C-alpha cells in the first residue's frame, strides 16, 4: 500500500516540478506577476508537504528552505531577481535529483543542495526576524551509515614522543570503547628491555577492532587532536550488510596481508609448511606473536559480530500466508490418519520390529501435530487491546465510569478461533457495560466505587481456554428474567427452575433483558447469537451472577479446531467419537440396571443419580443390543449426563473433517473423522444431543428448530 | 473426428439402477469407486446413505434408487459409487452416487436425444435432461446439476 502511495507521490511531484519550471520561466518575463509567484510558492509547498508525509524528508527539508525565500517574495519583502530565478531553477533541478536518487537508491549530491541554499540565503535581506525553524520534520535526516553496525579496524601507532604533548593513549582508546563493541590489542614488541627504556617514550601501538553504528568520522574525531602525532589507519572490515551471510571471516593470513604485516609471498612460503598458520608465521620469524594475536582477535571479533547478526536474523519472525499454514495443518491431519492406520496394522501383525517403527512414527507424528498446530497459535492480547478502545468509547457515550482490566493476554489460541471470537466478545462486553454496570450515582448509593470495572481474562484449562468477562455491576435479576421468559413463552409460568437454569434463559432465542433498547446493545442480536457462535467453535458459555455484585460470563473454547483428543466408541456397526474434554468416566450399564430403574433413563453412579441418553435409540440404530452397555458420563456446562454406547474403544486422535454442505443442518453431529482402517466415524456434539433429547422428553415444547 | 463433432457430441457414462439405464455427462464424473463401507449419519433421510472416506476427504453418498422411489440399493459385486462434481453457489461439491452397475462410456449426438416425456417414466422429469436412444434402448440422461443441488439434499428434516 505504502509503496503505491510513494509511487503516486513521485509522479505528482514530477508534475509539480514541471509546473514549477514553467512558472519560473514565465516569471522571468514578468517578474512582478503575483499570480505566478503564488503558483511557484504553492507548487513548492505541496512538494514539501506530501514529501514529509511519505518519508521524503530530504526533499521536504530542502524544499522548505527554498519555500521560505519565496514566502518573502510573496509578501513583498523581496523582489524577483535574475539571480533568485537561477538559484530557484537550480533548486528545482536538485529536488528532481533528490527524487530520482530515492528511486535509484544513489546518494544525492548534497553539496549542490547546500550551495543553492547558501546562495538563496545570501539573497535574503537581513532582517531581525529569522525565518522560523522548519515546521516539517525538524530532525536531521538520519545518516545512512547510522542504521547499520559496521566493523572497523583501527591501527593507532602514536609517535614515541606522544607523552610529551600530554596525550594519554589510554583515554583515546577508552573513548573508542564508548562508540561500540571494541577489542583492543596492544603491540608490545617494540618495548625494549628495562635498561634501555625511556619512560617518556611510547613504544606501544594498538590494533583496535570496533563495531559501531557511528561512521568513520566519529572514529577520526577521537584522534582529532593528535592527528599529526600518530599513524592512524582506519579500515572498514565488515560493512554490516546482510550480503556476508558467511559466518566465517577472512583467513588469518589474509588479515595479516591486508594489514600489511605480511606479504602474500611470505604467506605462500609459510603455507608450504603444514602447521597452524599463526604458529608457523611466528616460528618462521616473519612476524611477532603479538601481531598474530592481534589478527586472531580481529578474526574472532568479526566472527562474533556476524554470528550475532545471523542469530538475530534467524530468530526474527517470518510472515507466512495463512493458507500455507492451513495446508500444513491439513497435511499433518492426513499424516495422523495414516499413522493411526500404521499403528493398527502393526498391532495386527504382532511383529515387534514393525511395532517399534510404528511407535516411533506415532511419537514423531504427535510432535509434528503439536508443532504444526502451535504455529497457528496467536496470543489473544491483540483482541483484548481492541476492546480497551471499545470500553472507553462506550462508557463515555453512556456517561458511566468504567475501567477495563485484562489478564492473560498472552494466552494463545488458534488464529481462526480468535477471529471468530471477536464478535461474541464485543457483544458480551457491550452487554456488561450497558446492562451490567450502573450509573456512577447508583453505584455510590449502593456503596460501590463510582468507577465500574470490566475484567477480561483468559487462561488455559486442559485443552481449552477459559475466557472470562467479569463486571462488578448490578448482576442479573432472577425474577425479572423469569418474568420475561414467561412473558415471551420461553418457559411455562409454573416451571420449576434452578437459579442456573434461570440465568441460562438469557441465552434462549428471543430473549432480551434490556427494558429499553439502547443503541449500544439493542441491535437485534441477542445472547442466543453469542451462544450459537461459541457453540460453533465447539465451546460453551456459562454465567454466574450475584445480584448487586456483578456477573461473570465464562467462555470455554477449545484450543484448536483442527485436531482434538477424543474417545472412540461403537454402537452397532458404527463408530463415533466424543471430545475427550467433556468426558468424565465410563460405567457399565447391565440389563439388571435398566430393570431396576423401571424404564427411567437414570443411572446410579456411586450413589449419584445421572440421567443418560441411549444413543442407539436417539440414532435409530437397529443392530442387536449387547447385554452390557457402557455409559460415557460427560460434563456438559456443569450438568452430568451419560451417553449409552455399545462399547468404548479408547482414546483417539481425531482430525476433524467437515461433513460438508449436505449435512450442515444435522444436529448432534459436528463433523467426521477417518479411523485407522479408513472407515468414517462421526463426531458427536454432546451439548446439542442433550438439547434435542431434552426437547424430545418435554414433548417437543421447543422442537428441534432448523438452525 | 472434426472439431465440430467434439463440440456437439457429448460423452456419457451409463449405469444401471435396477434394470433401467441412466447416463451422466462424463465431464461431471470424477471417478468410479468400488463399493466401500458407508457410514450412516443419524437423523437424515434414507436416500442419504451416509459418508465415505475418499482418500482422506469425507464425501457424502446418495442412493438414487431411493430418491427415484425404487427399493434401496443392495450391495452386489457390481455395485459402484460414482463420484461426481457439482457446482453449487460458487462451490464445487463432491458427492458419491450409488449405482447397481456401471456400463460404459458412450457418445451421443444431439439428434439422438429427445426431451423426456412427462408421463411414463415414473420419475420426476425435472431431474432428466432427456432420453437418449442407443442400440435400440432408451437411456435416461440425468441432469446432475438439478439432482444434486436439489433443496431436499441440503435441508435435512429432523426425523429423530
UniProtKB/TrEMBL annotation, chain A:
A GO cellular component annotation in the UniProt record: cytoplasm
A GO BP annotation: chemotaxis
Residues modified as Phosphohistidine: 45
InterPro entries: Bact_Chemotaxis_CheA (IPR051315), CheA-like_dim (IPR004105), CheA-like_homodim_sf (IPR037006), CheW-like_dom_sf (IPR036061), CheW-lke_dom (IPR002545), HATPase_C_sf (IPR036890), HATPase_dom (IPR003594), His_kinase_dom (IPR005467)
Key words, A-Z: ATP-binding, Chemotaxis, Kinase, Nucleotide-binding, Phosphoprotein, Transferase, Two-component regulatory system
Function: Involved in the transmission of sensory signals from the chemoreceptors to the flagellar motors. CheA is autophosphorylated; it can transfer its phosphate group to either CheB or CheY.
Pro residues bias (residue ranges): 128-137
Histidine kinase domain ranges (all copies): 313-561
Pfam families referenced in this protein's UniProt entry, alphabetically: CheW, H-kinase_dim, HATPase_c, Hpt
Record-given protein name: Chemotaxis protein CheA
Automatic annotation (TrEMBL), chain B:
Keyword Cytoplasm: yes
Keyword annotations of the record: Chemotaxis, Cytoplasm
GO terms under biological process: chemotaxis; signal transduction
Domain CheW-like stretches: 9-153
UniProt entry tagged with the keyword Cytoplasm: yes
First-listed, main subcellular location of the protein, grouped into a coarse class: cytoplasm
Listed Pfam families: CheW (PF01584)
Protein name: Chemotaxis protein CheW
Amino acid at each position: 500500500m505504502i509503496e503505491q502511495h510513494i509511487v503516486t507521490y513521485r509522479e505528482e511531484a514530477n508534475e509539480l516540478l514541471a509546473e514549477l519550471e514553467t512558472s519560473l520561466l514565465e516569471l522571468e518575463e514578468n517578474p512582478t506577476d503575483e499570480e505566478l509567484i503564488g503558483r511557484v510558492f504553492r507548487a513548492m509547498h505541496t512538494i514539501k508537504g506530501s514529501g514529509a508525509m511519505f518519508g521524503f524528508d530530504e526533499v521536504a527539508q530542502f524544499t522548505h528552505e527554498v519555500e521560505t525565500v519565496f514566502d518573502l517574495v510573496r509578501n513583498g519583502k523581496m523582489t524577483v531577481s535574475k539571480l533568485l530565478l537561477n538559484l530557484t531553477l537550480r533548486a528545482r533541478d536538485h529536488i528532481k535529483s533528490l527524487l530520482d536518487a530515492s528511486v535509484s537508491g544513489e546518494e544525492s549530491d548534497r553539496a549542490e543542495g547546500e550551495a543553492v541554499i547558501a546562495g538563496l540565503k545570501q539573497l535574503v535581506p537581513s532582517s531581525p526576524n529569522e525565518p522560523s525553524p522548519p515546521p516539517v520534520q525538524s530532525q536531521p535526516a538520519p545518516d545512512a551509515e547510522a542504521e547499520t553496525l559496521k566493523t572497523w579496524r583501527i591501527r593507532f601507532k602514536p609517535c614515541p614522543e606522544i607523552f610529551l604533548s600530554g596525550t594519554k593513549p589510554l583515554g583515546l582508546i577508552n573513548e573508542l570503547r564508548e562508540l561500540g563493541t571494541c577489542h583492543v590489542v596492544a603491540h608490545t614488541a617494540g618495548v625494549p628491555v628495562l635498561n634501555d627504556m625511556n619512560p617518556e617514550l611510547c613504544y606501544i601501538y594498538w590494533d583496535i577492532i570496533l563495531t559501531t553504528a557511528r561512521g568513520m568520522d566519529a572514529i577520526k574525531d577521537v584522534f582529532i587532536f593528535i592527528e599529526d602525532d600518530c599513524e592512524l589507519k582506519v579500515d572498514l572490515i565488515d560493512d554490516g550488510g546482510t550480503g556476508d551471510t558467511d559466518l566465517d571471516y577472512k583467513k588469518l593470513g589474509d588479515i595479516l596481508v591486508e594489514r600489511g604485516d605480511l606479504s602474500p609471498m611470505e604467506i605462500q612460503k609459510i603455507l608450504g609448511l603444514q602447521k597452524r598458520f599463526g604458529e608457523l608465521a611466528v616460528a618462521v620469524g616473519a612476524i611477532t606473536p603479538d601481531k598474530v594475536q592481534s589478527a586472531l582477535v580481529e578474526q574472532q571479533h568479526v566472527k562474533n559480530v556476524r554470528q550475532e547478526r545471523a542469530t538475530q536474523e534467524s530468530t526474527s519472525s517470518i510472515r507466512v500466508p495463512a493458507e500455507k499454514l492451513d495446508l500444513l495443518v491439513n497435511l499433518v491431519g492426513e499424516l495422523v490418519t495414516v499413522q493411526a492406520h500404521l499403528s493398527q496394522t502393526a498391532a495386527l501383525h504382532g511383529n515387534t520390529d514393525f511395532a517399534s517403527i510404528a511407535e516411533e512414527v506415532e511419537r514423531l507424528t504427535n510432535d509434528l501435530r503439536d508443532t504444526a498446530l502451535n504455529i497457528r497459535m496467536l496470543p489473544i492480547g491483540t483482541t483484548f487491546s481492541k476492546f480497551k478502545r471499545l470500553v472507553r468509547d462506550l462508557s463515555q457515550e453512556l456517561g458511566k465510569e468504567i475501567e477495563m482490566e485484562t489478564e492473560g493476554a498472552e494466552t494463545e489460541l488458534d488464529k481462526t478461533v480468535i477471529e471468530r471470537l471477536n464478535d461474541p466478545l464485543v457483544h458480551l462486553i457491550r452487554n456488561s457495560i450497558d446492562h451490567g454496570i450502573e450509573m456512577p450515582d447508583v453505584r455510590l448509593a449502593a456503596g460501590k466505587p463510582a468507577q465500574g470495572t470490566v475484567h477480561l481474562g483468559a487462561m488455559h484449562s486442559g485443552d481449552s481456554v477459559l475466557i472470562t468477562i467479569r463486571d462488578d455491576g448490578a448482576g442479573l435479576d432472577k425474577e425479572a428474567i423469569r418474568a420475561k421468559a414467561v412473558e415471551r413463552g420461553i418457559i411455562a409460568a409454573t416451571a420449576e427452575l434452578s437459579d442456573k437454569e434461570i440465568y441460562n434463559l438469557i441465552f434462549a432465542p428471543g430473549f432480551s433483558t434490556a427494558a429499553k433498547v439502547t443503541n449500544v446493545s439493542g441491535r437485534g442480536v441477542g445472547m442466543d447469537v453469542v451462544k450459537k457462535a461459541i457453540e460453533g467453535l465447539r465451546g460453551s458459555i456459562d454465567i454466574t451472577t450475584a445480584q448487586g455484585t456483578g456477573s461473570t460470563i465464562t467462555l470455554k473454547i477449545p484450543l484448536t479446531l483442527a485436531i482434538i483428543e477424543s474417545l472412540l466408541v461403537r454402537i452397532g456397526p458404527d463408530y463415533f467419537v466424543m471430545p475427550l474434554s467433556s468426558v468424565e468416566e465410563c460405567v457399565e450399564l447391565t440389563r439388571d440396571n435398566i430393570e431396576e430403574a423401571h424404564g427411567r433413563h437414570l443411572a446410579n453412579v456411586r450413589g449419584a443419580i445421572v440421567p443418560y441418553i441411549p444413543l442407539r435409540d436417539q440414532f435409530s440404530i437397529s443392530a442387536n443390543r449387547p447385554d452390557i452397555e457402557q455409559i460415557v458420563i460427560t460434563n456438559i456446562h456443569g450438568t452430568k449426563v451419560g451417553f449409552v454406547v455399545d462399547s468404548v474403544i479408547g482414546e483417539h486422535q481425531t482430525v476433524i473433517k467437515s461433513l460438508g454442505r449436505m449435512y450442515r443442518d444435522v444436529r448432534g453431529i459436528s463433523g467426521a473423522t477417518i479411523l485407522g482402517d479408513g472407515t468414517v466415524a462421526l463426531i458427536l456434539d454432546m451439548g446439542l444431543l442433550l438439547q434435542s433429547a431434552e426437547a424430545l422428553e418435554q414433548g417437543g415444547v421447543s422442537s428441534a428448530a432448523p438452525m | 473426428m472434426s472439431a465440430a463433432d467434439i463440440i456437439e457430441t457429448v460423452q456419457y457414462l451409463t449405469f444401471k439402477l435396477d434394470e433401467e439405464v441412466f447416463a451422466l455427462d462424463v465431464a461431471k464424473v470424477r471417478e468410479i469407486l468400488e463399493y466401500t463401507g458407508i457410514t450412516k449419519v443419524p437423523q437424515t433421510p434414507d436416500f442419504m446413505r451416509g459418508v465415505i472416506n475418499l482418500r482422506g476427504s469425507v464425501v457424502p453418498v446418495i442412493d438414487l434408487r431411493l430418491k427415484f422411489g425404487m427399493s434401496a440399493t443392495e450391495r452386489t459385486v457390481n455395485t459402484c459409487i460414482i463420484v461426481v462434481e457439482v457446482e453449487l453457489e460458487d462451490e464445487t461439491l463432491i458427492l458419491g452416487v450409488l449405482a447397481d452397475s456401471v456400463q460404459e462410456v458412450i457418445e451421443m449426438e444431439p439428434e439422438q436425444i429427445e426431451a423426456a416425456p412427462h408421463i411414463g417414466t415414473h420419475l420426476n422429469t425435472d431431474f432428466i435432461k432427456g432420453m437418449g436412444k442407443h442400440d435400440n434402448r432408451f437411456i435416461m440422461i440425468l441432469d446432475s446439476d438439478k439432482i444434486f443441488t436439489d433443496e431436499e439434499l441440503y435441508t435435512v428434516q429432523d426425523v429423530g
